[in-house]
UniProtKB/TrEMBL annotation:
Any Gene Ontology CC annotation: 90S preribosome
Protein name (Swiss-Prot/TrEMBL): CMS1 protein
Pfam families: CMS1
UniProt-listed Gene3D superfamilies: P-loop containing nucleotide triphosphate hydrolases
Region spans: Disordered: 1-21
PANTHER family, sorted: PROTEIN CMSS1
Length: 228
């Protein structure tokens, strides 16, 4: 009888572990099989409202709202990165030619990691032409190096992570007054099927960057937001 009693909890424990394993696999299966849904401006609006609803007044939240005119057409998942940029910025050649200011970029592209930044830089070859692109992430690059490069030369596009871009703006290494476009790498998923806004740290840093200066510039009409 003693053996019988001992074997029951063990069986239960095993079956619970198996059930947990099965459940975990099932969730990832659903994510893999679910059809990708392209991000739209309303998704970003809802994200900002949810983020600020707990600690902001109704008036403060209203000041952070963006009208539809602040947004560029969103990627419908049919575009390559170059073809999307060509669609939203047909006058890029002229903008690139006229840009002479140091410590600034015309286009800012925000994504979740250094590796993803490099992928996007490679995939925009057909769009960028001979313009200068600056890597704005922390991996293997010191912030002082980036500040020095921005101070000495003229760059047209900046591609990087929200944390490093935010730090550069805070330390007066990057000025956003010449920025016309800010593109969020919204739809791309990593190996764990997470989008940039599914990663808590990246989500917070992106929202902080938007709140710090981008939302104000969008409301003034000088910056347009795009969701790729």
């Amino acid at each position: 009888p003693t053996e019988c009693f001992l074997s029951q909890p063990e069986e239960k424990q095993e079956s619970t572990v198996k059930a947990k394993r099965r459940k975990k696999k099932k969730i990832s299966d659903i994510l893999e099989k679910s059809a990708p849904k392209p991000g739209v401006p309303a998704d970003l609006q809802n994200l900002l409202s949810q983020h600020f609803s707990e600690n902001r007044s109704v008036i403060e939240i209203e000041e952070l709202k963006l009208s539809d005119s602040c947004f560029l057409p969103a990627n419908d998942l049919t575009h390559s990165f170059s073809s999307y940029l060509k669609e939203i910025c047909p006058k890029w050649a002229k903008l690139r030619k006229n840009h002479k200011e140091k410590k600034s970029v015309v286009m800012l592209i925000i994504c979740s990691s250094a590796l993803r930044s490099l992928e996007l830089i490679k995939s925009m070859t057909a769009f960028k032409g001979d313009c200068r692109v600056l890597k704005l992430f922390a991996k293997h690059i010191k912030i002082k190096e980036q500040m020095s490069m921005l101070e000495k030369g003229v760059f047209h596009i900046g591609v990087g992570t929200p944390g490093r871009v935010k730090a550069l703006v805070e330390q007066d290494g990057l000025c956003l007054n010449s920025t016309k476009y800010m593109i969020l790498d919204w739809n791309w998923r990593d190996q764990k099927l997470r989008r940039m806004m599914d990663i808590p740290e990246i989500k917070k840093e992106t929202i902080d960057l938007l709140e710090m200066s981008i939302i104000k510039l969008c409301r003034e009409g000088s910056v347009k937001l795009g969701l790729f």
